Amino acid sequence: MITVDTAIKIVTEAVRPLSPKRVHFEDGLGLCLAQDVQSDIDMPPFNRSAMDGYAVIAEDTANVPVELAVIENIAAGYAPTKRVQRGQASKIMTGAATPDGADAVVKFEETESLEPNSRVKILKTAKKGSNISNRGEDMRVGQTVLFKGTPIRPQEIGILATVGKSDVEVFPAPTVGIISTGDELVDVARKPAHVQIRNSNGYSLSAQARRLGADVELLGIVKDTKKEIFDMIQRGLKKDVLIMSGGVSMGEYDLVGEVMKDINTRIYFEKVALRPGKPVIFGRKDDTLIFALPGNPVASFVTFELFIYPAIRKMMGFTAIHRNMMKASLETEIIVKRKRREYRPALFRTQDNVSYVSPVEWHGSADLLSTTRANSLLIVREDIEKYAVGQLIDVMLLPD
Amino acid sequence: MITVDTAIKIVTEAVRPLSPKRVHFEDGLGLCLAQDVQSDIDMPPFNRSAMDGYAVIAEDTANVPVELAVIENIAAGYAPTKRVQRGQASKIMTGAATPDGADAVVKFEETESLEPNSRVKILKTAKKGSNISNRGEDMRVGQTVLFKGTPIRPQEIGILATVGKSDVEVFPAPTVGIISTGDELVDVARKPAHVQIRNSNGYSLSAQARRLGADVELLGIVKDTKKEIFDMIQRGLKKDVLIMSGGVSMGEYDLVGEVMKDINTRIYFEKVALRPGKPVIFGRKDDTLIFALPGNPVASFVTFELFIYPAIRKMMGFTAIHRNMMKASLETEIIVKRKRREYRPALFRTQDNVSYVSPVEWHGSADLLSTTRANSLLIVREDIEKYAVGQLIDVMLLPD
User: Fold this and answer.
1) ipTM of the predicted structure?
2) Which of A71, A134, B41, B369 would you call most buried, defined as having the most Cβ atoms within 10 angstroms of its Cβ?
3) Is the distance from CB of B316 to CB of B16 less than 8 angstroms?
4) Contact A52 B182 (CB under 8 A)
């Protein structure tokens, strides 16, 4: 049986970023750039006033107060028409182009307007260049402003708008199909009969994938027969990622692995030294990655975070492909019974800049309710026998 | 001029969660529950095998090895039909209901199947109750399993599915309208003439709000005239939140505040002791919150995070309404010049469980490109004169 670390390595090495796609730049939010982006303009595009005030010749303000003749009123979006000469000033608004001749802007608060508005009293000496942003100081024509691989956040959206990149190449999010297997499953809207339960994994897995931006289709529930599983897998093979839930443990009706082999899926691994979630199959059939996860809800949840999360992030072109990890001070002693890596639903908190974590109460890998009280998974390593209170332990943070 | 802390307090106290809305439970992902949710079933709904193996009477396994007669084969989804008596066992699959009489399950790995399959050799003594999950141990009929105010994550989606809650009351995300003002602005697809720039704030603000789940409409660009601003504000008043960009500083064409007063907007504040972003107006007109932000891109970005982010989170019913804050060791000395709170684009990193932060190079509040190199905002307090290298400083984390 391979370790969790080996399994994660196998998955991430088997995955490549998807082929780039051109999208409207606003739809790039949350994706990664698949191209470098150059600016088509200088920014600022002209010497620009950073304040509302008066454009002056700095030398004229060497001895203050001094009165200057106001020769023009320059608004943002309009070109100055007059050159400022010694003894003169132009009233200027934030974002407007500074007029020729002027080499500083004195802000309104440091001036006094004189009636009839054609003269201004400057109260404070200006340094050459003050309150003027020089053409091209933030970016220049032809400069690469954003690089391939950059995650597109609101600030990158702003830069794409600034440089007029209305369409842009990105790594798309994968399409994901989800199949739930099990004769015991009924859909949400139905009331389960005595020996049945509702299909919950299909929906929680879908939510995990949707939160990553994936385009998810719930393919539905199949019975534990090779024929039904085979037929549904055919539909799933149209997706970039196929997730199967259930049918992978040692039972006689655990047929998912058999069907995967029947259709010549390349199997990378079938079992991982992990709790919960030992029986997890990872394979590839043509261009589709197939993850067959255990049917227990917590095992399903955890194995998605461990194996499918980094796979999808890598397909989307991210370089940071794993969940954030922290170290935290353990609040409850943990005795390690099994020689398998364990992931336990836990509550992480910080207080006075120190991080703490404690496992939440849970009844094992079927107890999904416990994960609603958790904001993290506490990682119990396979090579440690006991964790004492106060010991630092690894924690995988789960976002809100 | 009020402080940033006071302004944030004013905003969050003025905001109430929006009226709850009933949605299909899958569409609740990322929103908060506006109701308690009860389970309509016990979970597990029956005494359930947690393993593939044999259901036995524990006492029969006191001395191993022992041979038992196999009387039935119970799959998940099917009811057992025979009572297990002394000397007997039923083969059972994970998730299946345990048969009457049996009080333990021995997993396959601890048994040896005997030909012709009608007998099994048990190799390990079983404790009463082992590998059986008792009916109702995770949740009981009528139990409140999720509470009003809970953020709906994938695990909550799984619980809603489990208890058959196919529709659920949530606090919706607000509708947001965005208006960009300025005679100098042209749209992304156009090449700016000499004194123009492209509208970038509209798009970056939209992305900031969309990332929170808001339903955003870019209302467009208006010229700096009271008539155009007035007309566009009428459209914006149909939204829960109206964001205006530009037109709020001291210039003669900064007419946004005037128009807000003309239409009897209740103004909460007009200036905050903040850099970048001093001129920021917060008001309410009927049911619409209006935020008028400065036109400089970094000021626009920062003021959204400080004031609009918590407002939208509170409207959505979250109790955690602010960005995550951390303390980090400063990597560059900072001398404080102004008695205004400063937020600087910064790079936050952790190494060996210690957090570090350093400001990224920037040329002031127009330099949006600097924020693409940042993953956080470093907070320079108004009451401190100097930060030394290694000193702990507050950092607001910005997500990918």
Assistant:
1) 0.94
2) B369
3) no
4) no
